[in-house]
Amino acid sequence: MTGHRAFWTLVAISATIRAAVACLGCCLAMAPAWRITHHGVGPGLLSSAVWAGAVLLILSVAGAVRSVQRVRRGLVATRAVGRHVRAAAVDDAAVRAAARQVDPTVPVDVVEDVGRFAFAYGLLRPRVAVSSGLVESATSEELRAVLVHEAEHVRGRDPLRALVAGFLTAQHFALPLLGHLRAAVVADRELAADRCAMARCGAGAVAGALLKVGDAPRWAHAAPAAAMGGRALLAARITQLEGDPPPPPRPDRRQVAVTAAGAALYAWAIAGSAWLIAATPLICLGRGH
Fold first, then answer.
1. Which of 36, 78, 130, 243 sees the fewest Cβ atoms within 10 Å?
2. How many folded domains does the chain comprise?
């Protein structure tokens, strides 16, 4: 599955679940209370439909809290990275010239740091940060390959895509297989950026850059960003450099098993909630009395 399809599959699954919950949400909190009030605590709590409604509410509220926290952390971390880059930025005429040749619309900042890293960051107006340590150690062709790679991340708005994917997976934590879709999005975008760099600079320059670029610095880890130096996909990227299509990432059995159980839980909770609301006379449905 390509990253584009994986991303929109993730969005579609989340939107379907949220639409079902939204259709039920207006009356879902009132229906269990009505049944307990009119039938007593014991019969009300023994109803499987009441438990289904409670489970759906818990999943929805917990998912909303987790997703809001994820977005908040991403926004705070992105602002912190921007401040750090601005504070440590230095002027480098050679990098500015190379960046103009790659894509004059993509802003590039050189950060005074002995580490060797490059990453794209920023949500609405993404930028590229390159360390002075990488600039000093890379050849001109390797540096150009790095800039082409990161410019592809900027054009694809990959930091924003990463934030949205993280938001959706946090929202539906009972379906861990969505995390596999998020990983597929990241992998596809990294490989696509490498292919763009190979087309413009050659496989040798990309291979040399991969050997020299390290992971993003610790102060940038919390921000949704796209970095050339990620070690997790190194094997797949080397396979692509050798001319072979890398195999798609495969979910582990635990992810599949837990997601199957989570999907069954969602289906039961949504169906039971729908029955509960349909069988309950509520003012919000125009059937109150």
1. 243
2. 1
